[in-house]
Specification:
The complex is a heterodimer. By secondary structure, chain A is α+β, with helices and mostly antiparallel strands. Chain A has one domain: Roll (Thiol Ester Dehydrase, Chain A). Chain A contains three helices and five strands; from the N terminus they run βαααββββ. Chain A has a five-stranded antiparallel beta sheet with strand order 1-3-4-5-2. In chain A, a hairpin with a 2-residue loop joins strand 4 and strand 5. The model of chain A has no long low-confidence stretch (mean pLDDT about 95). Chain B is an alpha+beta fold. In chain B, strands 1, 2, 3, 4, 5 and 6 form a six-stranded antiparallel beta sheet that branches. The longest helix of chain B is centred in the middle third of the chain and has 12 residues. Chain B: This is UPF0336 protein B0I33_11364.
Chain lengths: ~140, ~150
Amino acid sequence: MNLVHPEQGTELPALAVRVTREQLVRYAGASLDFNPIHWNERFAKEVGLPDVIAHGMLTMALGGRLLSDWLGDPGRIAEYGVRFTRPVVVPDDDEGTLVEFTGKVAEVRDDGTARVDITARSGGKTVLGKAQAVVRLS
Amino acid sequence: MPLDASFVGRTYPPTSSYEVSREKIVEFADAIGDGSALYRDPEAATAAGYPDVIAPPTFLTIINLAAINAIVADPELGLDYSRMVHGDQSFTHHRPVHAGDRLRLTTHIDEIFARAGNDFLTVRADIATEDGEPVCTTRAQLVVRGEAG
């Protein structure tokens, strides 16, 4: 496994993902979250949303990829938490919606762990708040 | 209608075990586009020191969300599901989940409060193996938007 030896302020390689309707359907099946706001435009609009929105848990999982790709071993992710601050609206086209993730090491601790702060933005706005992870460095 | 605050402190014991399979891990990893070999290749996973392929960090949403949905469906709690949104979510992993784990989930209602016309409900789930080994603790805050919101 590729071990990382980061310092405070180290930036993780950024990740940009286009979230499409196809991915929402796939994630619904994989996660067993079949809430119709994630696949049924008619229903989404009935409850006051502009269109179908991505599962917040999918956006969180994509942020997890940022950590997984960086660490090389996703088993080193000890804690991971996010706030869902704004929905990611996903139009019915092939382009989908671009979501961009960045991460930075906020603190390296004596116990061999580090805290990583993650940002997630779509359409120029943050879609996750207080997205933080604690990872084991060894 | 406010949530029934007497639900704070309630615990819901496990109703069944969930067996983590290699196939479900791959399906989930594919759905989130995470290409790690540790989700797919048992040899790579054992070389990294794990008993079998491991699961992505949010994989347990599969059983966590089902448990939350069961709790919020209780009519006595008074929660309007159509107004509910997921406020936050966290996972504290005591160790990575791996294929073959047989997991049991005990849920707790930790907190209920109202603020600015919205109701907030915090649900914690302690996830352990059938032998009682702690694997993960999840916390979710659910927000029920007020009528005016």
